[in-house]
Amino acid sequence: MTTDKKETKNTRKSKQPINEKSPLLPEKHASEEFKGAPFAGAVFNLSTSIIGAGIMALPTTMKVLGLGLGLGMIVFVAVLTEASLAMLLRFSRVGKSESYGEVMGDAFGVVGRRLLQICILLNNVGTLIVYMIIIGDVLSGTSSSGVHHAGVLEGWFGEQWWNSRTFVLLVTTIVVFAPLACFKRIDSLRHTSALAVALAIVFLIITAGITILKLFNGSVAMPRLLPKVTDITSIWGLFTAVPVLVTAFICHFNVHTIDNELEDSSLIQPVVKTSLALCSFIYILTSFFGFLLFGDSTLDDILANFDTNLGIPYSFLLNDVVRISYALHLMLVFPILFYPLRLNLDGLFFPAARSLVANNVRFGLISIGLLLLVFLGANFIPNIWYAFQFTGATATVCIGFIFPAAIALRDPHAIATKKDKILSVFMVALAVFSNLVAIYSDAYTIFKKNVNTNA
């Protein structure tokens, strides 16, 4: 057993750097002292890839689906995510692929690899825009629901020019995001990832504590277990929760990078299972207590609900702690998603160029361009629900379910079992149907809203 483990470590250390055909991976320019990422660090990085802005919209999915159906769907999507990652990693091992892009290239050639890169660009840009929107909501407030919800800075100092949304996001981008985006190895972020997970747990504990206290004093009503279904339109509306749930568990674009830096690559499956179990636990409790606390008044971004007196001692202090802790969490999660975004953009537009990490000028220009794009998107998109619907129903579902299933169905190495193929057909059919319905429902809602406004 000891010999096997040493051989695994030596294999990991002797891996060749990436080439232009595997743009999803960073070239290994680590120092000789770097012997591989530990298990805990890998779990924290993968968990941070999963837990992001999606958690803030999950209580709203409970409002759409009802608590019983909603919690069941969280578990269901987590199980499907684990199955899709297992298939993806199995095909990677057999094909000796070191990235998601290489697996897609192995199955579908250059077209498949390029299509994956485009989807990762759309998904990660959309998700990072959501992060900035939430940070803006927390610090500067939001009026996306038609009612103004004050931000933390506005509550402390009143409305000032320097706590306006645009200025706050600009300062956050320059002071926080830009330095964190400069790391060239994902394992360098393991400490910030651990802190990010801890801050998410702090948010959960405080929210649960407030809800339990209000339950004891009788000021919280029991939530709906099932969705409100009145007509066919309300049935179609249930599917709008699917893209949010899919987005909440997406982490496929980072799993190979984490695997490649792992000290013992045989631990990647336990890393995946541990991370999904931890994230599912946090998601279930956050959804339960968040929806129980605010009920049908739950906003698309639940952090915006924490701006009023909750009817408990030290309410406003706890409100600020909840919002600030999660805003800090998102700031620390940001570089984990920015990392694969930059690599994929470079691989898409500069496939023949030398490694990105070896070219500081290209590295800097791409980083600055992406930060500017995300900053502008966060200032023009009204709320996180629209961003989740767009990315979740298109690029995200492809990355998480359709592409892994397509690889298994293509089966370039003839290793797919009958179970794999049945599961793959099920995932593709479910993903395509549910997301087409979600897109239709969203488009219909927006059209109807515009018609009513014009009338």
Describe the structure.
GO terms for molecular function: L-amino acid transmembrane transporter activity. Residues 1-26 are annotated as: Disordered. With 455 residues, the protein is mainly alpha-helical. The chain has one domain: Amino acid/polyamine transporter I (Up-down Bundle). It is built from 16 helices and no strands. The protein has helices spanning 2-13, 39-50, 54-65, 67-95, 100-140, 152-157, 165-180, 190-216, 232-238, 241-249, 252-261, 268-294, 315-349, 360-380, 384-410, 418-454. Helix 2 (39-50) runs antiparallel to helix 11 (252-261) and helix 5 (100-140) packs across helix 14 (360-380). The longest helix is centred in the N-terminal third of the chain and has 41 residues, at 100-140. The termini are far apart. The model is unreliable at 1-32 (pLDDT under 50).
Share of helix among residues? over 70%
CATH class: Mainly Alpha
Query: CATH topology, which one?
Result: Amino acid/polyamine transporter I
- Shape call: globular
What percent strand? under 5%
Q: Could you name the CATH homologous superfamily?
A: Amino acid/polyamine transporter I
The SSE order reads HHHHHHHHHHHHHHHH
Per CATH, the architecture is Up-down Bundle
Question: How would you summarize what this structure contains?
Answer:
The chain is mostly helical and 455 residues long.
